Known about the structure:
The chain has 210 residues and is of the alpha+beta class.
Amino acid sequence: MEKILHKEELEQVCVYRGRRKSEYIAGRLSAKHAYLILTGKKKELTDIHIANDYLGVPYFMNARYSCSISHNREFAVGAVSDINMLRIGIDIQSCGSIKAQLINYYINDSEKKLLSEWHADYDEDYLFTVVWCAKEAISKLLQYGFGLFGLLEVERITTIQGHLALFFKNIRNVCVRMEEIGNSLVAVAAHIRFFDEITTGSTKFQRLEY
Ligand SMILES: CC(C)(COP(=O)(O)OP(=O)(O)OC[C@H]1O[C@@H](n2cnc3c(N)ncnc32)[C@H](O)[C@@H]1OP(=O)(O)O)[C@@H](O)C(=O)NCCC(=O)NCCS
């Protein structure tokens, strides 16, 4: 922990216990690595400070980079981008972990109809998790969190380079692309331009074992 966290993050982590503490550390580790890869800087992890604003949004102290973090039991993911170019929202969930009872409050009949078109390829819990994860990612991109869920409606589901991709009503030019990592689903929400950059190789996904 002392090799990863900035001194102010060490103060913050003291208020957390158990799983929340590990998630905080793993989330910081992922985002800091992403920052070093993106910027090519040779900095100590402990010199990078990621704080949270009053809404919980993570941000780099003294760096013009946008940051998004998510964690579940097994994994943490961090996404970093140049704040002037692009923002990203990221979320991770265990596959199939979101059940009908939970999501029923957060999806409407049009979305259920849309999902039914994919039932031949994916089971119901998998699709519910996709929608939940996508909504979390987009709500992080827009920085509101769960408060936004009631306003988000999936309008179209398609595949991009073999990955499920979701588009939302009234949120133009933003796409949420799903990625499977082990038994987890990762949703990345960003301007559609970002996904073109993945194809051209200027944007990277990288996996770390720790
Ligand atoms: C954003 C939110 C959907 C994330 O859900 P979660 O179950 O905590 O799960 P995740 O692991 O995917 O994400 C956690 C990370 O999201 C980030 N985050 C928190 N709030 C955020 C927001 N408003 N916008 C963008 N990112 C946010 C943080 O980096 C957090 O990790 P950290 O606290 O270790 O830095 C949820 O926390 C939320 O709705 N927050 C905003 C409003 C709210 O209820 N605040 C009360 C906080 S006590």
